[in-house]
Amino acid sequence: MAKLYTERLYLRAPNTSDAPRMQRILADFEVAKNLSRVPHPYPEGGAHEYLGRIADVSDPFDTKFSIIDKDGQFCGMTGFGRQSELPQLGYYLDPLHWGKGYMSEACKAVIGWMFEVADPMHIRSGVFEHNPASWAIQNKFGFEEVGRSTLHCLAQSADLPHIDTQLKREAFFATTQ
18: helix, coil or strand? Predict the structure, then answer.
């Protein structure tokens, strides 16, 4: 598993030491409402169960990274899930770290890693329409809107308007030069 370093962050494979902070972060409705597959309330032991499910994944298109801050604390997660034959970027961050540019820093690192190790045709992602901060992160790196859909959000128990996005290699490198 790759280890990535940025100016302020360390990104590594998730492990069980992340579970307590992960549990607290995902139990926060302000985080969960922006993620499609995280229920609210978040079940007790949900972080341990999730970490067990993703252990030992070797497919780069299904690689997750724990985001570790300068104090050595787990503060969120980013990475990819396989969607058909392409990677799909996802991410979340502890609200205590919102507004500091951490997620942009982490996403830049993992997107660059993905294009380096796997060279997909493009990377997919998306955001709920009610989440302009997430859209701003994607827009910064050259993601383009490729459609609109409705996606179920477990935390909100509702089908919500969703902006479907994708990123081409050339667009990403044009934004990071």
Answer: helix
| Calpha distance 68→71 (Å, rounded) | 8
Q: Which residue has the tokens 């790759």?
A: 2
Place of tokens 């827009």: 139
Write down the residue that tokens 């902006």 correspond to: 163
Domain assignments of the chain as residue spans, ordered by start: 4-176
CATH class of 4-176: alpha beta
Please compute Rg for the chain using Cα positions: 15
Give the model confidence (pLDDT) of 15-30 as tens digits.
999 999 999 999 999 9
Tokens of 56: 């030992």
To the question of pTM greater than 0.90 for the whole model, the response is yes
**Is residue 13 within 8 Å of 1, Cβ to Cβ?**
yes
Write the DSSP symbol of residue 154.
T
Gap between the Cα atoms of 78 and 67, Å rounded: 7
